[in-house]
Amino acid sequence: MEETDRYRAPALDKGLDILELLAEYPDGLTRAEIVKALGRGQSEIYRMLERLVARQYVMRSPGGDRHALSLKLFALAHRHPPVDRLVTQALPLMDLYAREAEQSCHLGMYDRGNVRIVAQVPGPGAWGLSIRQGACVSLLDTGSGHVLLACQGDERRQQMLAEHSATEGEVQLPRDELEQTLVSIRQLGYKQRDSLQSFGVTDISCPILDPEGHAMAVLTSPYIRRIDRHVGPSLDEARALLIRTAQALSVNQQAEGKDKA
């Protein structure tokens, strides 16, 4: 028997299946569509949906025929103290970076085998590239993922790699290339390379370190160079600003850790 099957809770599994399904459909689904997608009986889906609506995890349309996720899960996630504290501290510094570098930036944290974007600040101009808050990006082909992997102990890094599942469009990197990349990040203290997702973008990623010197989060800026008459900060200047921002956040986290000790 696999470890995941040892302690089964069928009712809980049904509820989670419904929530995970609805997360893929912003406009919601009818009860019949949920039943068909999950391959379960009408009655069991009806009872579970009624409870999820009563607990306000799912909203029913005014006509009563469609069901969609509410914002309750989002609100619960943002009440998680470590994430909430870090985001609260990070946003003013991220906003300062965005204005000084004239680039967007986003904050990522490890989440079940990949990287979850927990905060993002757009650049101040009329256009730019930004990653949607709440998005999941790959652990293995992004600067954010590589920095999080590089700045861990060996045991934790192997655990993260074992938990990884491929994301849509993920670029497969040979293991030896990945290992060399992680070594380089530990030596430099950051990662900078052309994006593997978008042309014309240079990703700069810097770790935010906890009191033990491990990356608890990563700050990334997808740098885009202007080619019109506007002269903005160079790539080197933006990198220096991002490193300064990440170091300031690391100092905050380490001071907080000492206070708790």
From TrEMBL:
InterPro entries: GAF-like_dom_sf, HTH_MetabolicPath_Reg, Tscrpt_reg_IclR_C, Tscrpt_reg_IclR_N, WH-like_DNA-bd_sf, WH_DNA-bd_sf. SMART domains: HTH_ICLR. The keyword Membrane does not apply. The keyword Transcription applies. Residues 72-255 form the IclR-ED domain. GO terms for biological process: negative regulation of DNA-templated transcription. This is IclR family transcriptional regulator.
